[in-house]
Amino acid sequence: MTAADPLSGPGALRFGYGTNGFANHRLGDALAVLADLGYQGVALTLDHDHLDPFAPGLIRRVAAVRRRLDALGLSVVVETGARYLLDPWHKHAPTLLHDDPARRVEFLRRAVRIGAELGAEAVSFWAGVRPPGVPPDVAADRLVAGCAVVCAEAAEAGVPLGFEPEPGMFVEDVAGWRRLREALGAPPGFGITLDIGHCRCLEPLPVPRCVSEVAAHLVNVQIDDMRRGVHEHLEFGAGEIDFPPVLRALADAGYRGLVAVELPRHSHAAPAVAARSLDFLRAAASRGEGR
């Protein structure tokens, strides 16, 4: 590769893959496959099968994962979107918006501490869906209070936070993230996790503009294809996004974090999907460099 190649040099994009797309693999095996494919990092979702934050021996297990990541040369961000980790009956419950958010708060605090031990580039989290019967103003107050606790934990640990706007959740777009950040007093460690597919799904601006609009606060990027108005994570080429301009926008923004593939419903064919995804992203980055 030459210095002008978008996959090398100081301005190179760094591609990762989400472990929620390897749910049928042991974590160590998933990491090895991704490293062998040529990925530079992972978005590690803490879950019952991948570094359960509530299982015994957490300190020992975190240290083992850190050694594995270092040995494979993989960077890491910590994701907290596990579906049934906290409640076996209700997806994503409790959130920071529920009457009793204590288990969610504890989960996020543990995620921050795990992130610090792993040397994570960011810890990512979201608001959740507003529960039935909870008025919007009450939900907003609860979200700010919960985020403030997580921000304090992250500041002490020195770990950046990436709050993710998620379609259908209480904070679903970039404008909602801006309002939340302002309500928190704009803490310096409170950044944004931007899912590229979500931008196409519901943001009013073109996807590359979404990138440039939040560039100063961007700490984590998830990438997948998507169609307008449909929140379905698709393989690249199956949706409506033109990726070379998006990757060019990330490079022009000076983004240096991971760009991690987010395909949580593709674990049944994880190695093949991960291989295709990396080939696609490399080709798209090369085309974007030429524009």
Share in β-strands: 15-25%
What is the N-to-C succession of helices and strands? EHEHEHEHEHEHHEEEHEH
Spatial arrangement of strands, main beta sheet: 1-2-3-4-5-6-7-10
For the record, give the distance between the C-alpha atoms at the N and C termini, rounded to a whole number.
19 Å
Largest sheet: 8 strands, parallel, barrel
State the total count of DSSP E strands. 10
Uncertain regions spanning at least 5 consecutive residues: 1-8
Structure description:
It is a single chain. This protein has nine helices and ten strands. The chain is α/β, with parallel strands linked by helices. The protein has an eight-stranded parallel β-barrel with strand order 1-2-3-4-5-6-7-10, surrounded by four helices. A two-stranded antiparallel ribbon has the order 8-9. The radius of gyration is 18 Å and the shape is globular. The model is unreliable at 1-8 (pLDDT under 50).
Q: What is the strand and helix layout of this fold?
A:
Elements: E1 14-18, H1 27-37, E2 41-45, H2 58-72, E3 75-79, H3 102-118, E4 123-125, H4 136-157, E5 161-163, H5 174-183, E6 190-195, H6 196-202, H7 207-213, E7 218-223, E8 225-227, E9 230-234, H8 243-252, E10 258-261, H9 270-289
Parallel strand pairs: 1-2, 1-10, 2-3, 3-4, 4-5, 5-6, 6-7, 7-10
Antiparallel strand pairs: 8-9
